[in-house]
Automatic annotation (TrEMBL):
InterPro entries: CEP70
Organism of provenance: Nyctibius bracteatus (Rufous potoo)
Keywords from the UniProt entry: Coiled coil, Cytoplasm, Cytoskeleton, TPR repeat
One Gene Ontology term, aspect cellular component: centrosome
Residues annotated as signal peptide: none
Compartments where located: Cytoplasm, Cytoskeleton, Microtubule organizing center, Centrosome
Single GO molecular function: gamma-tubulin binding
Stored PANTHER family: CENTROSOMAL PROTEIN OF 70 KDA
Name of the protein: Centrosomal protein of 70 kDa
Function, in words: Plays a role in the organization of both preexisting and nascent microtubules in interphase cells. During mitosis, required for the organization and orientation of the mitotic spindle.
Keyword Flavoprotein: no
Keyword S-adenosyl-L-methionine listed: no
Amino acid sequence: VLKVLSHIDCILRSPRAPPLIYRRSKGPVQNPIKENGQECGFEHLPLTIEMWADQLMALKDLHRSLRKLSLELVPWHTADPQDNRESIRVEDLQFMVDAILEDVENQEKNSQTPSLPTLFAIVSHFQKLFDVNSLNGIYPRMNEVYTKLGEMTNAMRNLHELLELDSSAPPTVVVDIVGKLCDVINENVTEQVQQLLGTQDIHSIINKLEEHECFFPPFQALIQDLLCLLEISNLDDILPTVRNLK
């Protein structure tokens, strides 16, 4: 036992040991154990070994936490062969951290492979823009937006061709020209109506329409009676039939 304790004590005193692990007892030692006439100072070993045991247990907890982090950041990695080992080494943890850092750096350098947070932000932004409440509604809304965009693109292309505009003309220019054409058409229609009715006054137009409403129903009834009386069905036959009766 003394040899084992001496070996452990040598390990704790070695330059490789962390400086805070080995602390020589400052007070007087009760019943010191001596080997080869020298004081071994084994009284601090139990506390040190307990601390080592706690650190080894903490390594397992840290390993589980790193595995969870790895699954979140790089879920395409398969489980490493160290998962089933009872003892976890610091080298294993350092390897996992290096692997995660390498994958994250590669993702940042390669713009064609966006990170999961970036993809999540894109999906959330699409949902806000197009009022999609659930993930299941994203694909139908994408199809709807694609269809509407195609229809609008074709309509704008046809308007550019009809109006003899350059394909780079913005929609505002197209709308402005269409509005001007509508104004010109409306003006021409008004002029034609005025020429047809022989008046430039809107009140005269109203009066003529009212006169038409008063005159046309009795005239239509008279024509219908003549057609029945003369036993004919065509308006063009009324005058020849009346002449024959004379």
